[in-house]
Every structure is written in C-alpha cells, then in structure tokens.
Amino acid sequence: MNPHLRDVAIPNDWDRRGLPGWSYHSDALLELEKEYVFRNHWQIAGHVSDVPNAGDYLTMDVVGERALIVRGKDGVVRAFNNMCRHRGSRVVADSQGTCKNALVCPFHGWVYNLDGTLRGAARPRSFPDLDKTEFGLMPLDLEIWMGFIFIRFRKGGPQPSVAELLKPIEAEMAHYGVADMVPSWGIWTQKSPVNWKSVRDVDNEGYHVAMAHPALQDLYGATYFDEPFINGVSRSFATYNPHAGRRWSVGQYIKLAPEAAHLPEHLRKAWIYYGIFPNNALSIMPESVQFYQEFPLSTGETLLRGAIYRYPDETREQAAARYLAYRIDRDTMNEDVQLSVWSNESMLSEAFEGFYLSDLEYGVRTHHDHLRKQIPVLGLETAPEEKDMWALNDALRSQSQDGTAKPPISPLVGAGQRGREGSRAFESTSDSAENWRDDAPRIG
User: In terms of Cα–Cα distance, which of 71, 88, 69, 87 is closest to 79?
Assistant: First the structure.
C-alpha cells in the first residue's frame, strides 16, 4: 500500500528564504501572533482520559488566556475561561485535579456547578442584583476528535471544525483506537530559550534527521518522508527497520516491540507525525500516541507541552516498547531543542540573510505561508517600526481580504537557486550520514 496520503508537487520557483529574521525577536509581532494565531486557532488541551470522572479537570494557559476543562455530572466535557466572574481570579489554580461536585473560587468563594453555571456567591446580600444565569463561567469552543480535546479561545476562528480540519488523516488514525487510550505519565511541560517559530521550524522538516538524530536515523533512516502543510495539516511517515539497532534504545525497541497485529500491515512498523497549524503535533507509534505543542512566553522563550497515551490493556511487551520509544523521543527532543537554539541565535546577527531552504524543507515554507496568510506583515523583508506594526498589518489584511492586493511576499526564487525543468513529487529520503560529503559539520 502506498504510504502517502497526498501526492504533493513542489513548484520550481518557490521562495526558499523563509520568514525574515526580524520576525523571531519582534515584541510587536508577538502581539499579532497572540491575536491572529494562538487565540483564534484550535489547540489540543488534552485527552478525554485526562478527565475520566465527574469533577475531574485540567487547566491550560495560552498567551495570557486561561482555560479550564472539566467533566460534568452528566459526563459531558466542557471548557471555560478559568476566570471567576467576580474579580477575574483563577477558579482553579492546579494544572490538573478533581473537585467533589463544584468549583470554588479561592478568592471570595464564589461557587460554580460543574456545568459552569453559578451556584452562589459568598454574602450574596452585599450585591444589589446578582443574576445567577448571567454570571456563570464563560464557555470556550470545544471539540473532541478521537478522544483528543481541542479548544479555541475565540469563537469562530479561521479554521473549520476539528472534524473537517483533520478529515485527511481520519481514516489512518481510526486504526489505532486512540479514543480509548489512557494517560501514560500525565501532561508534561518544559521551557526552551527560543522563539516559538524556531521550535516549529525544526519540527516541520526531516532533512536534518540523518545528521542530527542518530537514533531516528538508526530506527527508520531512508524510509522517512514529509508531506507539507496543506489546509493546515502536515504529515510525516516512516517505517522502522527490523534489522537496525546500533543504538541501545533502538535495538531494544525493535527486539521487544510486539507484532501490532491490531493494525493493518503497512502500519505495524510505522511512526507517523501529524502537524496541525499553528503549533500542534500528534505522534503515532504502534504502541502509543502523543501530542506536543509550543506556546510563546516571550519572543525569546517558549513553553513546550505534551503527553503520551497508551492502550488500557497493554501487554508487558507494549509497555516496554512504549518506554523505549519514549527514550528515543526524549533524546530527539533534546537534540531539537539544541538545534532550535543555534538557529534562533542567528536571527539577532547582522550577518543573517535569511534561510535557503531545500526541497526537503518545503514543509517549513508551507507553514510560513500559513502564518503569512494570518499576519501579512510577515511578508516584509525589512522590519517595520514596532509602533507601526499593528496599523500596517491591519492595512495589509484589509487589502488581502478585499482583493486589492496580495500579501507582500516576493515570488522570486531564493538567491543562488538554479531552475530545473518540471516539478518533483515531494518525498524526503533522509540520506545516511555516511552519504553526506566528507567535510560536512558533525554534531558530536
């Protein structure tokens, strides 16, 4: 079976420069990203198994917004702003937990039912008129897709429903029974000293795998390929080599991983990665699934967040394989963090002249194109004045929406590119490190 979901042809004249360097350290641009990228696009909050019982909740902070996800007595999972209607305090301070049958604000003791309605306020006679139907928790958009909880802070964003957005990967994902999985170790977070886009740039291409990720190269090598962002979704696919194992974790994983007879044959050794614009990813292995994402804390600091889920009736062999896959991914993430730091540092240098992207990095370009569509000022090579950023972006958005102008991204071929006749199907075949030129720099 052809492992490709979509045949993608790369044009010969695509711009290989990527986003301008100024966009990785502009405070004014970050405010635009909060407004047009993070508040109005779908975010993965967790999985229904994170809140299995009535009163179970989890919280999530994104660019100054605060979400509270709670399962009600009726079994329904709902999302609200984690904000008391009295003075704006957090209703729940913990990242995850359980309440008995109500949510109680720790500031003045306002009490909310699990469905978000206001049950009562402390000393209610001190208020001239307190309409309980008016002062419930403010709801957020929420959709559940194959067990994953997606939320959106602003209603009616530019993306369609989650079901429509992820329709291209639905049939493939359905084989894994993800909705019935349960948490492995809970939701984790980690900070990284880079701009959030540098994290995503690394994750959006596999060109670097052969050089920078020895465990992944050992595991699946040249079988890896990328499908870039199309309508907000990307996909990467690889099958592990049953004869690999130069590295301990890889060798033990291949040795202990069970046959995965619950999957179609072409997926039994597959590792699949789905990117979901703007900042979410799903990683699928035969024995587990995980999500991960990144949020900006500032122009130079990013919060990484994610979780791994397993089969509820997993065997000892599946548990061992899941742990070994975690070890491989842990090392890979640490390598990616270092790569993003090195790349991000260059954005502040006067010598930085932009990217020069390979065909194998077309996923980086398509993600950048999605960003430019939301924030057209990203098409400017020269940084606007910080004080003018919002007004200029508003003007460009208006022009783009009414058809009087196109986003200001140059259609020219990147410097030094030589044209080729025709176009090529997009497939990344991560060459082994041995096939790279002898004088290529190595990561120790």
Answer: 69
User: 184 and 310 in contact (C-beta within 8 Å)?
Assistant: yes
Encoded amino acid at 378, one letter: L
Q: Residues 51-85: pLDDT tens digits? A: 999 999 999 999 999 999 999 999 999 999 999 99
> Does residue 119 sit in the same domain as residue 210?
no
Helix %, strand %, coil % of the chain (to 5): 30, 25, 45
Query: Distance of CA 365 to CAs 17, 20, 230, 241, Å?
Result: 8, 12, 11, 30
Give the domain range for residue 85.
42-156
Report DSSP letters for 379-422, one per residue. Answer: G-SSPPPGGGHHHHHHHHHHHHHHTS---S---SPPTTPPP-SS
Q: State pTM to two decimals.
A: 0.88
The verdict on 243 and 374 lying in the same domain is: yes
CATH number of the domain to which 61 belongs: 2.102.10.10
Q: How confident is the model at residue 15 (pLDDT cuts 50, 70, 90)?
A: confident
Q: Are residues 92 and 15 in the same domain?
A: no
